[in-house]
Design brief:
34% of the residues lie in helices and 18% in strands. Strands 6, 7, 8, 9, 10, 13, 14, 15 and 17 form a nine-stranded mixed beta sheet that branches. The chain has two domains: 5-153, Leucine Aminopeptidase, subunit E, domain 1 (3-Layer(aba) Sandwich); 168-318 and 338-419 and 434-525, Aminopeptidase (3-Layer(aba) Sandwich), CATH 3.40.630.10. The chain is α/β, with parallel strands linked by helices and 526 residues long.
Length: 526
């Protein structure tokens, strides 16, 4: 709901290259103030580059209805050029500008900021909410800083894409849940605390059911691969299931599986001490999929979704799994554990088989901070996607573009399986030799545990044959479409500007929500 300017003690306004305000803001701001802002904009030397910001004080003079603090942020475009930008561009321009504006005001002890919705209200809500996120609740009271309340100035009738201020809040709040889960120190985010935290932010949402399984359940299910990782820690494992039933009864679900290593020391194959503290975020995949359900349920999407999250620590101890040990997964395959620091694929193996064989989803997506090789390959900008379905890839690509939480496709090719089938004592080995394409080997290892998987794995050889691809995607309707998303690089960022906040990112939560919305709106997607 639109508010009066007098309700705010500060404003964030977007401006074009000539200093004029956006059409939305111009409807709310008195003409004399607009002229004053444009003059000050030009005097201040702003060039109109996206993200340039200037603070103005007392421009309204004695008018009590005009907030005394105004942040004007350049959008980097000319007035009247809005129509030349597609939705993803409009969203991103607005996210960046809004986040920069609210962050520039945050340190000025403001309580309530009015935000110009600029080019897109969904993007404005995302930018403001993501940009103001802090993780300071563990600091002493004097070092904690409250973020201001933000509300939109004006409203837009352009909601044909079903994205509004309210949806932007939901997407951003979901990612902030994931950020908090991943950023919390491991002693305060054990498997038990993780399940309790997720239950707390999902408890009042409709159509959500949560089930928490204990070790005895995993034993009964013969999850020897999962159990082998958990045995080295005194913290009890948990297997979290979240069901969202927003679709028709009996409708095939969409399934997400998230890697939930709440701390990864590497086990007996212990990691170097440098940056080991970051391994509190090795449950970033679990955080993302659990938080995506928050967004899906808040939006009330008409689909069914099941989330599976195996949770444990990977620690060295007298009873921890040793390099060379052989364990047996739920699907009966034996695995030689050559490296205990390749533990994520071991817990995901049982979770993938359980989820795919029990719930038979139309699409199964796992999210995991899986390989250092992915960090080397893509850095922190893209999350790597390995999938057997061209159609699924196109949908993820579209969702990532809209959220500006992008994906890059990597090969899911059976040729990489040669390196995991060379064990002389087991069906599989959990790592390949150095230089074998670590991320690709890990992905093909996971594929071994998806039940009912389509055979469309060698996409690269067929990509020039559109007719063949169409036939393959049609065949997938009767089988599971699978994607593995490696977020080892994108789980954390060193950037601290705009809506990027230094630390754990909570990615790809918003992309998963957007993907789910696209599926819900387009049944032919599956």
């Amino acid at each position: 709901m639109s508010r009066m300017l007098s309700d705010f003690d500060a404003l964030v306004l977007g401006s074009y290259k000539d200093g004029s305000l956006t059409d939305i803001a111009a409807k709310e701001i008195p003409e004399n103030l607009q002229r004053n802002i444009q003059e000050q904009f030009q005097y201040s030397g702003l060039k109109g580059k996206l993200g340039e910001v200037r603070m103005f004080y007392g421009l309204g003079g004695d008018d009590a209805n005009i907030p005394k603090k105004i942040a004007v942020v350049a959008l980097g475009i000319n007035k009247g050029s809005e129509q030349s930008h597609d939705i993803s561009e409009a969203l991103e321009i607005t996210r960046k500008a809004t986040a920069i504006g609210v962050r520039s005001l945050r340190e000025l002890d403001v309580k309530h900021v009015g935000v110009d919705i600029m080019l897109h209200e969904h993007g404005a809500a995302e930018g403001a909410t993501l940009g103001l996120h802090r993780f300071d609740n563990l600091k002493s009271a004097k070092n904690q800083k409250a973020s201001p309340l933000v509300s939109p100035i004006g409203s837009s009738t352009n909601v044909d894409d079903n994205l509004s201020w309210d949806t932007g809040l939901i997407y951003a709040q979901a990612q902030n849940h994931a950020r908090t889960l991943a950023e919390t120190p491991a002693n305060l985010m054990t498997p038990t605390i993780f399940t309790e935290t997720v239950q707390s932010f999902l408890k009042d949402l409709p159509n959500v059911k949560i089930v928490v399984h204990e070790k005895e359940w995993a034993v009964q299910k013969n999850m020897g691969s999962f159990l082998s990782v958990a045995k080295g820690s005194v913290e009890p494992l948990k297997f979290l299931e979240i069901h969202y039933n927003g679709g028709e009864e009996g409708q095939k679900p969409l399934a997400f599986v998230g890697k939930g290593i709440t701390f990864d020391s590497g086990g007996i194959s212990i990691k170097p001490s440098a940056k080991m503290a970051e391994m509190k975020g090795d449950m970033g995949g679990a955080a993302a999929v659990s938080s995506a359900i928050y967004g899906i349920a808040k939006l009330g999407l008409p689909i069914n979704v099941v989330v599976s999250v195996p949770l444990c620590e990977n620690m060295p101890s007298g009873i921890a799994t040793k390099p060379g040990d052989v364990v047996r997964a739920m699907n009966g395959k034996s695995i030689e554990v050559d490296n205990t620091d390749a533990e994520g694929r071991l817990i995901l193996a049982d979770a993938l088989y359980y989820t795919s064989s029990t719930y038979k989803p139309h699409s199964l997506i796992d999210v995991a901070t899986l390989t250092g090789a992915m960090v080397v390959a893509l850095g922190e900008i893209y999350s790597g996607v390995f999938t057997n379905s061209n159609k699924l890839w196109e949908q993820l690509l579209k969702a990532g573009k809209i959220a500006n939480d992008p994906f890059w496709r990597m090969p899911l090719d059976d040729k990489y399986s040669e390196d995991i089938k060379k064990s002389i004592v087991a069906d599989l080995v959990n790592v390949g030799p150095r230089g074998s394409g670590g991320s690709c080997v890990a992905a093909i290892f996971l594929k071994e545990f998806v039940s009912g998987l389509t055979d469309d794995t060698d996409v690269s050889e067929k990509e020039n044959n559109s007719e063949t691809l169409t036939d393959l995607d049609a065949d997938m309707d009767k089988k599971i479409r699978y994607a593995h998303i490696d977020i080892a690089g994108s789980m954390i960022t060193s950037r601290d500007s705009g809506y990027h906040v230094k630390g754990m990112t909570g990615r790809p939560t918003r992309s998963l929500i957007e993907f789910s919305k696209l599926v819900a709106q387009n049944p032919d997607f599956v």
